Amino acid sequence: MRRYSRKIQVGKIAIGGDSPISVQSMVKTKTADIDATVVQILQLEQAGCDIVRIAVPDRLAFQALSLIKNQINIPLVADIHFDYHLAIMAIEAGVDKIRINPGNIGDPDKIKQVLIKAKNNNIPIRIGINAGSLEKHLLKKYGHPCAEAMVESAMQHIRICENFSFDNLIVSLKSSDVNITINACRLISKKIDYPLHLGVTEAGIENIGLIKSAIGIGTLLREGIGDTIRVSLTADPVNEVKAGINILRALNLKNNNITITSCPTCGRSETDLVNIVKEVERQVAHLKKPLKIAIMGCNVNGPGEAREADIGIVFGHKKAVLFKNGKAIKTIPETKIVGELLSELD
């Protein structure tokens, strides 16, 4: 059962309520480098990214916002810290959401100006709490970053917004520690009905970060917690998007793409299954069909998996049996497998 949350509109994408769980990423380019930033965003769009975030640390970055916005197709989020002027200007430039923690602005009048501008333009704000940047008084109270401190920080920022009658909010609580992230999101999910943005922050290089993100994000989604996700990797952001989509697919929360099931291979396999699977994956990457393909290396688990897929291949010696809708329909020479499989997909 998915946790109830109110629906918040970010450009053309809805977050929360009964909306599909969206996948986000953040560009790694300098925002002031407009051409490089646009190229990376378009690559993210191609990979299936729903919402993209860019850093706005200074006025040079702000000046690029509208030029970037006019060349992309997905909602644009401005990531801002401390400077309320940048938040106001980003809204005026036409961004679809801003990420800023109101309490970090300081002066109540400055906070009020940002919230009024966001409210008048129907722009949501994401309150993003990171374990690495908790307020000093909370670190003193709890002794170290922990789930309880993160929740208290989030509630403080939420109350600031609500005191100014602003509730167009999305909330995230992230730590590089998977357990802290999970516990913080569990706690906050019982206190608020705002949509939750999930992620394990500073997850690390790709091979480590993928595991941490899959465990953290996947655990929460499996419990019905979470409305939008971002996988954070020290890697190409396109791989963040692919990882996010694969997490949703693994939980049957996203079914508009082809899913490939394949065996890990062992001494029974008599074909180069790894490269065959890679080739099939490459050939079907652009297809938007909710189909399952099984590519199996031998007849131990192969026939069972192939029957459960829309299209299945079970390899033997120099040939393979092709299954379709649960039935074996033909035997094919190994050299023709990929072509035959793609033909059946068409």
Shape: elongated
What helical percentage do the residues reach?
40-55%
The CATH topology label of the largest domain is: TIM Barrel
Total discrete domains: 2
Class of the largest domain in CATH?
Alpha Beta
Q: Quote the average pLDDT.
A: 91
Structural class of the secondary structure composition? alpha/beta
Percent of residues in beta strands? Answer: 15-25%
**What is the succession of H and E elements?**
EEEHEHEHEHEHHEHEHEHEHEHEEEH
Terminal CA distance reads 36 Å
Instruction: Describe the largest sheet.
Output: 8 strands, parallel
**Number of helical segments?**
12
User: Tally of extended strands?
Assistant: 15
- CATH superfamily annotation of the largest domain: Dihydropteroate synthase-like
Q: What Rg, in angstroms, do the CA atoms define?
A: 23 Å
- Low-pLDDT runs: none
**Strand order, largest beta sheet:** 8-7-6-5-4-3-10-9
The CATH architecture name of the largest domain reads Alpha-Beta Barrel
Secondary structure topology:
Layout: E1 8-10, E2 13-15, E3 22-26, H1 34-47, E4 51-55, H2 59-69, E5 76-79, H3 84-92, E6 97-99, H4 108-120, E7 125-130, H5 136-142, H6 147-163, E8 169-174, H7 178-189, E9 197-198, H8 206-222, E10 228-230, H9 237-250, E11 259-262, H10 273-284, E12 292-296, H11 302-308, E13 311-315, E14 319-324, E15 327-333, H12 337-345
Parallel strand pairs: 3-4, 3-10, 4-5, 5-6, 6-7, 7-8, 9-10, 11-12, 12-13
Antiparallel strand pairs: 1-2, 13-14, 14-15
